[in-house]
Amino acid sequence: GYAPELFYPVPTSALQVERLYTWFDHLVTRRDVPGDVVEVGCYLGGTSALSWRLLQRTQQNRRYICVELPPAKWTVGLCCFAV
Fold first, then answer.
1. Where are the domains of the chain?
2. pLDDT score recorded for residue 81
């Protein structure tokens, strides 16, 4: 089986550093905008884990919802979860 915790003991993002910084900046500067956060296309969840941690540390009481997209060859099915 696949055990991602063995490969990634700490959250690892697939985003380039500049894009990750921009995403974090958006999360912080828009903290007063009401509503939850939705990430579409979360791959292994590294950015999701880091983003949720940022929301917690900046005391933002919102849900962080992740929706993984199926491969293009699939025609049905989505997997989603909330943290």
1. 35-83
2. 53
pTM of the full structure: 0.73
Query: Quick check: 79 pLDDT over 60?
Result: no
Q: Which pair of structure tokens corresponds to residue 43?
A: 């791959």
The one-letter amino acid code at 16 reads: Q
The H or E element containing residue 6 is: helix 4-7
3-state secondary structure of 29: helix
Q: How far is CA 60 from the centre of its chain?
A: 15
50 Cβ contact partners less than 8 Å away, ≥ 6 residues apart? 11, 13, 20, 24
CA angle 5, 28, 80 (to 5 degrees): 45
